[in-house]
Amino acid sequence: MSVELDLTPLSPLGQEATPAGPALGGQIAALALRAGSLIAFAVIVAVFAITAPYFLSVGNIGNVVGQSAIPGVLAVGLTIVLIAGGSNVVTGGIDLSLAANMGLSAAVYATLAQAGYGDGTAVAAALLTGGIIGAVNAFAVVVAGIVPLLATLAVMNVVAGIELVLTQNTVIPATTPLLSALSSSGPLGIPVLGLVLVVFTLIVGAIVQFTPTGLRLYAVGEFPEAGRAAGLPVRRLTAGAFVASGLCGGFAGILSVSNLSGSTTGSGEMLLPVVVTALLGAVFSRRLVPTIGGTLLSTLFVGILVNGFQLLNISSTLVNGVQGILILLVVSATTLLRKKEA
Amino acid sequence: MTLPAHRPGAALSFSAIVKHFDGAQALAGASLTVPRGTVHGLVGQNGAGKSTLIKLLAGLHQADDGQIEIDGVEHRTLTPHLVETLGIHFIHQDRLLVPTFTVGEALFLGREPRIAGTPFLDRRLMQRRAADILDDYFGIRIPNSALIRDLSTAERQIVQITRALLDQPKVLVFDEPTAALVRREADILFRLIRRLRDEGVTILYVSHYLNEIEALCDAVTVLRNGRDVATLPLAQTSASEIAGLMIARDIGEMFPKRDVVPGHDILKVHGLQLSGKYHDVSFSLRRGEVLGLTGLLGSGAKDVLRTLFGLDQADGGTIEIDGQPARRLDPVRAAQRELALVPEDRRRNGVALDMTVGENLTLSSLKQFTRFGFLETARERGEADRLIARLEIKTAGRDALVRTLSGGNQQKVAIAKWLSRHSQIYLLDEPTVGVDIGSKVEIYRLIGDLAERGAGVIVLSSDLTELVGITDRILVLFRGRVIRAFASAETTPEAVLAASTGSSEVLRHVG
Lengths: 342, 511
Hints:
The complex is a heterodimer of chains A (about 350) and B (about 500).
Chain A: H1 2-5, H2 24-51, H3 58-85, H4 98-114, H5 119-143, H6 148-167, E1 172-173, H7 177-182, H8 192-210, H9 212-222, H10 224-229, H11 234-260, E2 262-263, H12 271-280, H13 292-311, H14 317-341
Antiparallel strand pairs in A: 1-2
Helix pairs in contact in A: 2-13, 2-14, 3-8, 3-9, 3-11, 3-12, 3-13, 4-5, 4-6, 4-11, 5-6, 5-11, 8-9, 9-11, 12-13, 12-14
Chain B: E1 10-21, E2 24-35, E3 39-43, H1 50-58, E4 65-70, E5 73-74, H2 80-85, E6 88-91, H3 103-108, H4 123-138, H5 153-166, E7 171-175, H6 183-198, E8 202-206, H7 210-216, E9 219-224, E10 227-233, H8 239-246, E11 265-274, E12 278-286, E13 290-294, H9 301-308, E14 316-321, E15 324-325, H10 331-336, E16 339-342, H11 346-350, H12 357-362, E17 370-371, E18 374-375, H13 377-391, H14 407-419, E19 425-429, H15 437-452, E20 456-460, H16 464-470, E21 473-478, E22 481-487, H17 493-500, H18 503-510
Parallel strand pairs in B: 3-8, 3-9, 6-7, 7-8, 13-20, 13-21, 16-19, 19-20
Antiparallel strand pairs in B: 1-2, 1-4, 4-5, 9-10, 11-12, 11-14, 14-15, 17-18, 21-22
Helix pairs in contact in B: 7-8, 8-17, 14-15, 16-17
């Protein structure tokens, strides 16, 4: 048998395979990026804690988490689409209609509440609105084959238009028992919205990070061919991600009505911060991929920045600049790292 | 399922398969029978129909005519899903694994084990079983936390094979499995294949490396021009006989040979190397000379061509163009130094499909047609018409979109595009792939014209009959090195094939 083996091809350049060798540099760089982000997070918290004594109080931290609830829910929804659509910023998964979705769902909720319908009906209608928007996105991407960036951009405009028609561009006030409960404070003075964010992330995180469905979402996003080869229903999974993201938009809509005691215009301004937050989340994962946990961390990170700047009396417009720089750093670092591996 | 008596022991049987693509015949009555529990080789030159046959078996295409029997049962239509349930699995060249997954996740994707009584993944079980299987079959250990993107090519291939083994396949189809492997890794693969055969798995092994076929297979089927020309037990044949069967001999007058007296050296390459791709490549090219370059996938031949045009940077060695050293070539500088590359994948690189024939023809020489920053459209059109006539490009006219042209005519546009610049050195990458015979001859004539005009031409081709026919000299790369140089007039396609498949190495070792 070994005689036969002598007939095998000559080794090119006489090199032997070294397991996991060539990517070692990349691994170290990825580790540095991840550790660096965590250290940066910790340093910023420390600086705020020292310079603004109130910062670390339970009340303030509760505030930060509470204020992060709405962008957090949206960013989690977007993360699902990022996972199932792949990390390519131009052709990969993105849902630009999320913020407009939240606005319309909130308007639907507030309108129904004002018209005297109960919480149950209003909640169902808001979630249904979000789900339908998600289904339209799914149809445009999966069936019509439009790039998510363009498909959801178009849907965003349609949804924003419908919201204007529904609300006549006015504030629709709403008060219901559910809304009051959501906007109250829970144990230790932590806002109920903050608890909602934590529970919501735990549930979605459990599904996305720990079930076969979640694993398949990653496969479909990262390498659809591999998904197909493994016999996965690639199109159904992609469509499901958009519907899930739409439902998150509807859910965020309900939260926003409670936060603002009604539906207001201008939800579109939430879009870019949410996109930044979701993209930023990838640095908090070992594999540099979007994760639900990473997105929660990144949401809190952004929330802490805003809060700390407010406490230090620094103009909150600076936060946008800091976010911009962060996203540039993160996206270029991850892109460079991934290029090395290819 | 009981086996019909008339075909005992055939795991796979194709009879008289015919398949057309867009009018071109890919398979013209090919038959292939693979006895159960054997390793069966499938060989043939590019375009012989190997990959079409494999794709039919995978259920990716349907045959126009003929019979496919699997385990003695005839199947009219195969789908990828049906094929899988029949126990047939494929190990493809491109490894279909998610780069950000761990080995366990990649192995179990699509059939993930759950923690009993919960909807959650049992990651620990996935890791343990992955480690056990890899250790059992390959004797290798990959850390649980390692991601697919951190693995070597061979390790990825092993993971892919392991994925197929998890399904306890009846038939495994290997499509060029060793192209990216070094010898030690290929040894592991061969040992595994023998072990699988001894365990009763039937193996169809597609490879260009005839020495591997010789060492591994029980029998081999040779395809040529869409037909099976022979099926031989390896005990009664040799690599050189197989090479002979692979090459067609019925193309007499295809090569309009010219007598050009070569001039001085226009390109000199010395000790060129690009680590992991090729090593110590030296040659020179004279004016009026047509130099052939060939080698299998992964031999480095294509990479040498890319380096010459500046698409890759060599790690070492020198390139001299017309006596001047060329350092840090990039495509812009290469074009300035009057190099022209006609890439193989012309849909992606060679022509702009949604521009007109005329625009494409003058695209790389617009400077010639520009005065005061404006295009002289009349002159541009004149040049386009001249090229269309000269190359006999079949098109409705210079204003037709290139997309509407046939493959051969698109290729002619790609070559003509560079002709209008009057380059000194032409690098042609597989210039006749996917081109009909008539267009081939015109492209050959064109290459002759270029040489006659005093240009140096390098043709990279895996069609060896063509290469021997149109070149003056041929360099053969094998696993990163120039292992043979031939004078085209004094050699045969068979000899070149033997060199490029490494079987001349075998003969030397044995004899």
